[in-house]
Amino acid sequence: MLGLGDFAIPRILPIGAILFEFLFLLIAIPIEAYVLNKRLKFDKKTSAFYAIAINLFSSTIGWIIFFIIEPMLPINLKSELISYTFFHTFRLQSTQTFLIFTASIMFFMTFLMKFFLLRFFVISLKENLPKLYENTPENKRLKWRRSSIARLQSTNLVTTILIANSLSYSAISLIILLSRKSS
């Protein structure tokens, strides 16, 4: 490794992994933007913005988590990871079972990250949110109606993110499967 103080740069960059990540983002963003547009009734520009934001942030957070966890992995998993990254093959058959388990965990963690990120973006980018609550009279019926609408919107948001994440993961899995068949 090339040393820069405490920061070290690898001598070999996994260009294939970087390009695949870029390809995955290029696939996931339009799919998820389309789902956000159709299900949450955002306009196309807003849907694309939210899809880009949640995918880039969740991807970045995912890579940070990976780079934190990677040094703690056992040597055999590290060698399998290197073997797959550079040669697209596994040395052991048991690794594929572990990969399926890990992919399931990644799917649900990504789903949760995207849900909370989208919720954060929607809440933080509302311009008239304080004015909305200042001008409304407070009575029990109105509070109940507002809370039931918020619950419905939250459920709709969860369902939409789950559908969008499932579709994008399915498309990405299909591409990985096709790339493994061709090599």
Report on this structure.
With 183 residues, the protein is mainly alpha-helical. Helices cover 80% and strands 3% of the residues. The protein contains 6 helices and 2 strands. It has helices at residues 15-40, 44-69, 75-87, 94-124, 129-135, 140-182; strands spanning 2-4, 7-9. It has a two-stranded antiparallel sheet with strand order 1-2. Residues 127-136 have low confidence and may be disordered.
Write the layout of secondary structure elements.
Blueprint: E1 2-4, E2 7-9, H1 15-40, H2 44-69, H3 75-87, H4 94-124, H5 129-135, H6 140-182
Antiparallel strand pairs: 1-2
Helix pairs in contact: 1-2, 1-6, 2-4, 4-6
InterPro entries: FraC
Transmembrane segments: 12-36, 48-69, 98-122, 155-178
Keywords: Membrane, Transmembrane, Transmembrane helix
